[in-house]
Amino acid sequence: MDRREPSTRISERALTVWKLYGWITAGIISLVAIAVITLSIIFDWSNWFIVAAVVLPIIDIILFVYIFPTLKWKRWRYEVREEEIELQHGIFIVKRTLVPMIRVQHVDTEQGPILRKYRLSTISISTAATVHQIPALDLDEADSLRDSISALARVAEDDV
Amino acid sequence: MSEEKRLHPISTIISFVKHLKDAVIPLVLLLFLNRGDQDSFLSYMPLIVLGAFLIVILFLGILKWWRFTYRLEDGELRIEYGLFVKKKRYIPFERIQSLNYSEGILHRPLKLVKIKVETAGTSSNLESEAELTAITKEEANELNSIISKAKKRMKGQHEESREEGHALNEGGEQPEDIPEEKILYKMRAKDLIIMATTSGGVGVVISGVLIFLSQFAEMIPYKAVMNELAEVVEAGVLLTGIVVFFVLLVAWVIAVVLTFLRYADFTVKLVEKDIVITRGLLEKKQTTIPLNRIQGIRFNQNIVREPFKYTSVTIESAGGSALEKDSHTIRLLPMIRTKQATPILQVILPDYEWESEFIGAPRRSVFRYMFWNLLFVTLAIVPLSYFFYPVGLLSLILYPFMALLSWMQFRSAGYRLSPNQLTVRFRVLDKQTVFMKRKRIQSLELRQTWFQKKGKVATVSATIKSYIAGSESSVKHLAVDDVEKVLEWYRPEGQLLEEKEKVHQQTVE
User: Fold this and answer.
1) pLDDT tens digits, residue range A81-114?
2) How far is B459 from chain A (nearest CA, A)?
3) Span B260-274, pLDDT tens digits
4) Which residue ranges does the record annotate as region Disordered (chain B) (predicted)?
5) Does A44 touch chain B (CB under 8 A)?
6) Residue A159 and residue B318: Cβ atoms within 8 Å?
7) What are phi and psi of A159, to 5 degrees?
């Protein structure tokens, strides 16, 4: 049934970057947690605050550093064919999206500071009505993909 | 018509009134506040300020009118305007999608129209729209014919260079100078009344009347009225009944009046390749939709109207004016029996299929529709029952209603494939049917949660362009095989094969 499942995976470095994102948010949450612990010791709040402040960051790290990025990476597939682009992603809800080349209006690549450090880049494919992103592709791959998509994308003769 | 032209001077008054409307609240405040000490110079202050303000607005209006000129030159509509900084806006004719007319109360006695120039509405081009506040009808028609002629000529050249065969057809159409008009639909007064009665607007009006009444409760001598009535009628229940009836009646009348103001004389015409909709009692509005801008058609069956087999038909159109908020979903037929809608649509869009047989969701999906809705309702019922213990239990009534709605949602879900068209039907509260041509679908998505995967069902979701954004239609819990079928149907590579086969067949024939 899934005979046409898209085949290309995104860069493995994406996993590293997502984990890094996870660590950054975990760091922020930990700071808040530390503040809560300090306050609850000073003002003698219920012990449950301390328990929560210890447990929640741990859960966050387990989920957003270890489990979700891996699942997300495993799920992410894409394939750029001559006539169409097919994407598949989503942890809880698997989404398979089909975008015909003739509907593509323009392609962008972009990267933030973290992505740049890992030589990665995000590609956005815009149609007249929707925008689809492939996150964290290898820089060269993203650039060549962008070029080939924009070469393949032809302007439709109809109005939009 | 290449000389510079000004709008009709009445546009100064129009812009004056418009500015006044915008400033009405501060002005009223200014008048009524600060009325303390009499006979002093200060008590006249508000009036003086007000007077000065009005004069300035009027003066600005005149200046604006004086500075605003338009002309047709080199295949462009050229507008120059601006109070202090002169701005120029040149719109090439081929970028103009349509001219929309509207006539306000001030326009009508003078036989003037307001024209909105609509361009292809990609977000970057919003700036290239224009509005001519008041010009005479003759000028408007002249403008219209010059632009459409120029557009036709350009298109003709374009096609000639591309395909010589088409040039003949173009030439054949050219001599008819007067565009062919075909009236397709006129709304009757009866329809308008039914529409007003069943529209959601009634609810809004009712709440509006209630709020109004509660605001003025102190002014109306309820007590006196009630005491007097109580002497006549002993039961307070009856009184409440009368009040409720009165409120409903007033709300209904207001709704009818509002509907008449907006939709009186609702007429749909087909003029060459454009749909022209005119409507309105005091303010006449004319909307033009080029057929090739239509992205999809949506039937919306309001849950109140559904038992009477009434539906409203809206057009999803690309472009449209950014200045007018409701222009992206254009009501083509505000209220009509489904059976009557189809013949009209067949004339306008003969290449669409209006069949209403659908492949529905499989039986196993009933449970899914039920489960999520009932879970959702439970989230409301539990706290209600807990915190308002005896009375809150009444909220349990929501269960059967929700179960019924879920059942209806299940029954409504469905899709229909034909070689070039996808039709989907789904229900949130109102039943919606969306007709989409394959070449208008921007992207298609199959969605599947973990639970859906277990049950071998999936959600299909198609996006078409509507206005400058997208409009997504999705049907939940269809059999996964069916959704895959839709995906395969949409796949361009499959289409290529089909087309090749078609060409092959034709050459064989």
Assistant:
1) 888 899 999 988 999 999 998 888 888 888 888 8
2) 9
3) 888 888 999 988 888
4) 153-175
5) no
6) yes
7) -75, 105
